[in-house]
Amino acid sequence: MGRRDMADIISTVEFNHTGELLATGDKGGRVVIFQREPESKNAPHSQGEYDVYSTFQSHEPEFDYLKSLEIEEKINKIKWLPQQNAAHSLLSTNDKTIKLWKITERDKRPEGYNLKDEEGKLKDLSTVTSLQVPVLKPMDLMVEVSPRRIFANGHTYHINSISVNSDCETYMSADDLRINLWHLAITDRSFNIVDIKPANMEDLTEVITASEFHPHHCNLFVYSSSKGSLRLCDMRAAALCDKHSKLFEEPEDPSNRSFFSEIISSVSDVKFSHSGRYMLTRDYLTVKVWDLNMEARPIETYQVHDYLRSKLCSLYENDCIFDKFECAWNGSDSVIMTGAYNNFFRMFDRNTKRDVTLEASRESSKPRAVLKPRRVCVGGKRRRDDISVDSLDFTKKILHTAWHPAENIIAIAATNNLYIFQDKVNSDMH
Amino acid sequence: MEFKLEAHRIVSISLGKIYNSRVQRGGIKLHKNLLVSLVLRSARQVYLSDPCPGLYLAGPAGIPAPPPQQQPGEPAAGPPAGWGEPPPPAARASWPDTEPQPERPSVSHAPRVGDEVPVTTVTGVGDVLQGGEADATEAAWSRVERSRQAAAREAEGPAGGWGVFPEGSLAARRPCGCPLGGEDPPGTPATTPRTACCCAPRPAEDEPPAPPAVCPRKRGAAGVGGGPAGCPAPGSTPLKKPRRNLEQPPSGGEDDDAEEMETGNVANLISIFGSSFSGLLRKSPGGGREEEEGEESGPEAAEPGQICCDKPVLRDMNPWSTAIVAF
């Protein structure tokens, strides 16, 4: 795959707080924003579909001359700010720099200037005989995007996550070893709130893999580690939150021990539930639901693709074992979703304990087509449409998924394609 | 035995990953390298502790599995091959065939097991590596060793044993005869923090007897135990113990013989890999430091400190697998 093809690979997907906008970032540093079309009687078949709203280049490749390091332009994360006025704002980050973008619409323009003509050229003053007040006339919608803040030089290591605080004034950014707290209006300063860098790097045993603020309590945040643990921290307790308030860890099952136990226990994503009561984590083979009130073990564990457990060595060889899958809650916290290989993604209903495997592909995604549940067979009886484990395509991986905050609409990033699926039958959350 | 082959394969793959990570766009990924280093340690420990008496991994063509009778004659001949008998003289001649391509001249300078590497070569490499890089390499490898021992020590805890493979750990216990459970006596930490298992290689603090002036890099790259491949100090560290020593349970947990042999195994592995690293260090622009296995050395300003090598990279890991196997 050439460099240009790789630039189109989607690296992050995020709905805004209303679900009206959907932002995607890609490896080429671009951000594409989709907007949901309002349902209209004129075109009933296109109600609620997402169209491209704006595209802009968020990050460019950079070169750190001091360290002879190239800084990738790949967008690692996008987080929307809560909307406070007519404009939309989002944070986008690559490995080193976070940027605050403001997205505004312009659908009117002033006409009737006294000193300028229609093209903007200065008028000959002698031709001006009377004064007029310029009026705003409607124009074709223009979406303007401008970088309002650039938060640079805050991180030595690669930024893996950003999270906006519920106070709407601050946000945090996490790299492998440190977490910084920023104020959205201040770019030349950030506060370090977590630092797990050991005094001697030879003693390094774990890194930070993901972090998120609590959705309601502005003083709480969680970060996950490569060892599979979660740490809940309270910023009221101390300025430096190296000491966790709660440590969520599940003891390892000794019967599952292998060379790769550590790799597969590394948490690749952590998400608070909308209620704020639970956390969802993803490691290589499972998704787990944790109750904030219970640190000893998760309350629910779902196997995403346990059939890969016997193939860990091959997956280590082809680097797939390092894939970082994300996970998502639906709006009512009753269903969780995560991606897998072969363009499959999985949904687990926490109430009914039923799960489904679906595929994001062009064939299955004709308009208004219903996704057919897929099955991976692991030997034994094989049904007609089953896929065998050995014929899974490990280059087709769904790492990034997002769920509309209120409705049953999901966005699935399959390499360089974005699929948006809607559950028309059950469009309301329940 | 499958464990050993599997472990060996995983070691090769892991080394390849670490090697390739240095030229990846965007710099070295700390998380991934940390995970790879954990796997590498696990695999190497299984590899070293799995007894497999009588197993000699066949090297590439031209380096047949040396027969046991070669051992007595070898010790005086040159640098030890702790992993088994050094390749017979015929193998040395064929050794260049298995060397990597010329675009990596530093590797061809690398000390070869069984060769009487001229002092000049070693010194040359050593000179090129300034203190920083040597420290980096040494620190990197000592970190590997120490952490591995720390990990092994932790493993001794509640589980009561190294549980990589249940069978493997049991097998590992028996031949070396030392109880895997049981911590070091409190008095030892200052000297050589060993794991409870005597089969652990000597940690970096243990200075090899080789004169530093001659082999500064050797001390760094093969900081563990000593001596190593290519550094002509035959008498100083008897690392030529044949593999079968593994079968003889040494007394106590501090038997020097078995430990040194094990050290030699690792030392050779390290020196191979270390030498390649040092060669690449020399090639890298800016004289910066390498970030190896997730570790960084040097001041804050230099972190992560890795260099994107713009020289052509040898992607084919076969020479490395071959090099490791040959020992």
UniProtKB/TrEMBL annotation, chain A:
Single annotated GO MF: protein phosphatase regulator activity
Domain of life: Eukaryota
Keywords: Repeat, WD repeat
Signal peptide range in chain numbering: none
GO cellular component terms, A-Z: protein phosphatase type 2A complex
Protein family per UniProt: Belongs to the phosphatase 2A regulatory subunit B family.
UniProt protein name: Serine/threonine-protein phosphatase 2A 55 kDa regulatory subunit B
UniProt source species: Papio anubis (Olive baboon)
Automatic annotation (TrEMBL), chain B:
Comp. bias (Low complexity): 71-84, 116-128
Transmembrane domains' residue ranges: none
Compositionally biased region (Basic and acidic residues): 143-156
Ranges annotated as biased composition (Acidic residues): 253-262
Organism superkingdom: Eukaryota
Region (Disordered) location: 60-164, 203-313
Ranges of Polar residues composition bias in the record: 265-278
Family statement drawn from the similarity comment of this UniProt entry: Belongs to the IER family.
UniProt name for this protein: Immediate early response 5
Originating species: Colobus angolensis palliatus (Peters' Angolan colobus)
